[in-house]
Write a structure and sequence with these properties.
alpha+beta; two-stranded antiparallel ribbon; 4 helices; extended
């Protein structure tokens, strides 16, 4: 570590360093205070399961739309079950910041691609989905018996409490959060 200065002498650059000492006023943890990972011994060999041919099964539920756009020769056609423009509305499309270096044809092709994959876009929590259980089942996180830490939640001002409650209810309704009875 050091302080570096760049000096120029007749087409030559040289690095001059001046060493210095950094002092930090911290105390090292004692061995008893360090967090140690728990060794569970031999694993039970379980791993998340899934259906191996989930891609083929998902293609059976695809709804291929007959409408072809101007750039359908280069793009994969729309195969979702939602109507064009239901998520990517004109207002949302106008707010998108698209690169300035694109030509008008490139922008048109980009927006056609976005409309073809419109179901993958989410502008609010009602559009969010979950991974299908065929792809990967719900995960079980294994823990060892321990005492959960007790940390108070962050304070919410009383004026913002209705907004926070509304946000939590919206997330619960759309499945982003779920009720639990665990210690955390």
């Amino acid at each position: 570590m050091g302080e570096y200065r760049l000096s120029r002498t007749v087409d030559e650059f040289s690095m001059l360093s001046k060493p210095y000492v950094v002092k930090v006023g911290t105390l090292r943890k004692r061995k008893a205070d360090k967090v140690r990972p728990v060794d569970l011994g031999v694993s039970d060999g379980s791993k998340p399961g899934s259906i191996l041919d989930w891609v083929e099964k998902s293609k059976l539920t695809d709804v291929v739309h007959g409408e072809k756009g101007k750039y359908s020769n280069w793009l994969i056609l729309k195969f979702s079950d939602i109507k064009k423009g239901s998520r990517l509305t004109e207002e949302c499309a106008a707010k998108l910041l698209v690169g300035e270096g694109l030509t008008s044809q490139e922008k048109a092709m980009f927006f056609e691609m976005l409309y073809n994959r419109e179901k993958a876009l989410a502008f609010d929590f009602s559009h969010c989905g979950k991974i299908h259980s065929e792809v990967t089942p719900p995960q079980v996180i294994k823990t060892v018996k321990h005492k959960p830490w007790q940390v108070p939640g962050f304070p919410v001002p009383k004026a913002l409490m209705p907004i926070v409650v509304k946000m939590l209810q919206e997330r619960l309704k759309n499945g982003v959060l779920e009720y639990c009875d665990g210690p955390y």
